Amino acid sequence: MLETIILKKAKDAPHGANNLRKALRDLFKHAVRIRLRSDNPMLNVERIKTKKGGRRRWSGGELARYRAHWANGTQQRLCFELALETTARRGNVALLGPQHERPATDDAPFGWLDVAHIKGSDAAPVPISVDLRAAIDACPTRHLTYLHTKHGKQRSAKALTGDFRSWCNEAGLPSDCTLHGLRHTGAHLLAEAEATTRQIMAITGHRTLALVEHYTRDAEKAKLAAQAMAKRNKGRAG
Questions:
Q1: Which residue has the higher pLDDT, 73 or 120?
Q2: Residue 117: which of 102, 148, 143, 95 has the closest Cα?
Q3: Are 160 and 93 in contact (CB under 8 A)?
Q4: Could you tell me if 3 and 43 are in contact, meaning their C-beta atoms sit under 8 angstroms apart?
Q5: According to the 3-state scheme, what is the secondary structure of the chain?
Q6: What are the sequence ranges of the domains in the chain?
Q7: CA-to-CA distance for 2 and 24, rounded, in angstroms?
Q8: Which of 66, 54, 67 is nearest to 218 (CA)?
């Protein structure tokens, strides 16, 4: 019965199915500990296989297409810049608001944004970029969160995911351009700019090097490939 529930959820949300499996496993583990059950039935339910690497990164063309479709002054654009520049998960993006801003400093001329990363990540003070500053200033709010409904209510993380999907559709972007994909894209752009692993961790809030090093590895591979090809072409020219 429990395996059937997990498999049914896995059809539409394999990562969600694994999260549910983990939650039920911990719940039954606690039940055994306090002697409400004699066994943990979730121990025999296998983890759902998922694609490695999480949501795919956006291409440069896709980033430009979204920006071209949604001009500054819209919540659609503000949501995009918040997710990309802070590398925050959807739950954090939905919670961010003016109260999280901090004054500008020499290191951050457009101010700082305190991002309280969730799901085991550390809180991170993120310098506000010129693009994010423009998006925030062009979309002023009297509410506690930057992103809200037309009635002034905060968007939930789940609702924001659905809304962002609709906004991407309107911009003519493929279905695998996702809000969470912007988190990976933002981290990869930092790596392409030759930020170190620890520098990236200071933005993303990751606590372990292993979760971040694949961004720097991918960026290094591209750079090394370009250098190798340049050397080969130089040899041909000679």
A1: 73
A2: 95
A3: yes
A4: no
A5: CHHHHHHHHHCCCHHHHHHHHHHHHHHHHHHHHCCCCCCCHHHHCCCCCCCCCCCCCCCHHHHHHHHHHCCCCCHHHHHHHHHHHHCCCHHHHHHCCHHHEECCCCCCCCCEEEECCCCCCCCEEEECCHHHHHHHHCCCCCCCCCCECCCCCECCHHHHHHHHHHHHHHCCCCCCCCHHHHHHHHHHHHHHCCCCHHHHHHHHCCCCCHHHHHHHHHHHHHHHHHHHHHHHHHHHHC
A6: 2-44, 60-218
A7: 9
A8: 54
Question: Which homologous superfamily does the CATH classification assign to the domain defined by 60-218?
Answer: Intergrase catalytic core (1.10.443.10)
Nearest partner of 96 among 25, 160, 38, 176, judged by Cα:
160
Please check the confidence at residue 56 and state whether its pLDDT lies above 90.
no
- The model's pTM is 0.73
Q: Minimum mean pLDDT among 10-14, 134-138, 180-184, 190-194: which range?
A: 10-14
CA distance 94 to 161: 10
Sequence-distant (6+) residues with CB within 8 A of 126 are 85, 86, 112, 113, 114, 115, 203
Mean pLDDT (whole number) for 146-154: 87
Q: CA-to-CA distance for 186 and 147, rounded, in angstroms? A: 20
Bridge partners of 146?
A: none
pLDDT of residue 53: 46
Q: Which residue has the tokens 């999260």?
A: 19
Orientation angle between helical segments 179-192 and 157-170, nearest 10 degrees: 80
